Amino acid sequence: MDSQHGSPAIGVGMIGYAFMGRAHSHAWRTAACAFDLPMRPVMAALAGREQAALEEAARRQAWAATETDWRALIARPDVQLVDICTPGSSHAEIAIAALEAGKHVLCEKPLANTVEEAEAMAAAATAASGRGVRSMVGFSYRRTPALALARRLIAEGRLGALRHVRAQYLQDWIVNPEFPLVWRLQREHAGSGALGDIGAHIVDLAQFLVGEPLSGVSALTETFVRERPLPTASSGLAAVADGAARRGPVTVDDAALFTGRFPGGAVASFEATRFAAGRKNALRVEINGDRGSLAFDLERLNELEFHDHTEPAATAGFRRILVTEPDHPYLEGWWPPGHGLGYDHTFVHQVRDLMYAIVEGRDPEPSFADGLQVQRVLAAVEHSAAHGSVWTPVAHPGGEQGSPPMPSGTGDPVAVAP
Question: pTM of the predicted model, to two decimals?
Answer without folding.
Answer: 0.91
